[in-house]
UniProtKB/TrEMBL annotation:
InterPro entries: PASTA_dom (IPR005543). The keyword Membrane applies. Residues 46-100 are annotated as: Disordered. Gene3D superfamilies: 3.30.10.20. The lineage of its organism: Bacteria, Bacillati, Actinomycetota, Actinomycetes, Micromonosporales. SMART domains: PASTA. This is PASTA domain-containing protein.
Length: 227
């Protein structure tokens, strides 16, 4: 029998009431809202700046990607290769080292045979004086003036030979012009001596032709006109 106050939460036998469903749904909604808020706070952090501030990553990117000031010196790789300027030659040309006109440099002929040294000095318009030693051989041991010395034409160079003067044969100078006879005497290794002047023909000589003497010995000649 009904009293007019039927309880809504009293389910009928075999049928569940709707009140527990409503309560469970409300609790689930509140729980989801709380979890969502908590997750948002954790992700954002307690000190998250306002949306109007620039993000830290963007600021960092702007700082690191900003171009270097234009006044900064370029890196070595960016600098163009510098070509060293060509410096003018300061060495005097070889031609300028030659002696002036009328002068010649004594050549280095030490170690050569004395006859070749004599010819070389003559070609350079230099005189020579052979000074023989007491050793062995015909090689030149030294020169005076020394090799490399600048001297004038006609200067006599002393040629020091290791060994003694070799033998040589006196030429026949009969009827030679006096100047030609003197040149022949010198060529054979002797020294000419003039008895009666230097003009005319050779009339006599001493030693006689074909006699053996040594280098640097004298050969006397007498020159004159026709008899």
């Amino acid at each position: 029998m009904s009293d007019g106050h039927t309880l809504l939460d009293t389910p009928e036998p075999g049928r569940r009431g709707r009140a527990p469903l409503l309560i469970g749904g409300g609790l689930a909604f509140v729980l989801l809202a709380t979890v969502g808020a908590t997750a948002g706070w954790v992700l954002a952090g307690p000190d998250e700046p306002s949306s109007t501030d620039p993000p830290a990553v963007a600021a960092s990117t702007a700082l690191t990607s900003a171009p270097a000031p234009t006044s900064a010196a370029p890196s070595p790789a960016a600098q163009p290769a510098t070509v060293a300027p060509t410096t003018p030659r300061t060495t005097a040309p070889a031609a300028s080292s030659k002696p002036p006109a009328g002068y010649v440099t004594v050549p280095d002929l030490v170690g050569d045979g004395f006859e070749g040294v004599r010819s070389d000095l003559r070609d350079r318009k230099l005189g020579w004086r052979l000074i023989f030693g007491t050793g062995l051989g015909e090689k030149v041991e030294r020169l005076d003036p020394a090799p490399g010395t600048r001297v004038s034409h006609g200067t006599t160079v002393k040629v020091y030979v290791a060994g003694p003067a070799p033998e040589a044969e006196v030429p026949d100078l009969d009827d030679y012009d006096c100047a030609d006879a003197a040149a022949t005497i010198v060529e054979r290794g002797f020294y000419p001596r003039y008895r009666t002047g230097r003009v005319g023909k050779v009339r006599s000589q001493d030693p006689e032709p074909d006699v053996t003497r040594h280098w640097n010995d004298e050969v006397a000649i007498s020159c004159g006109g026709e008899e």
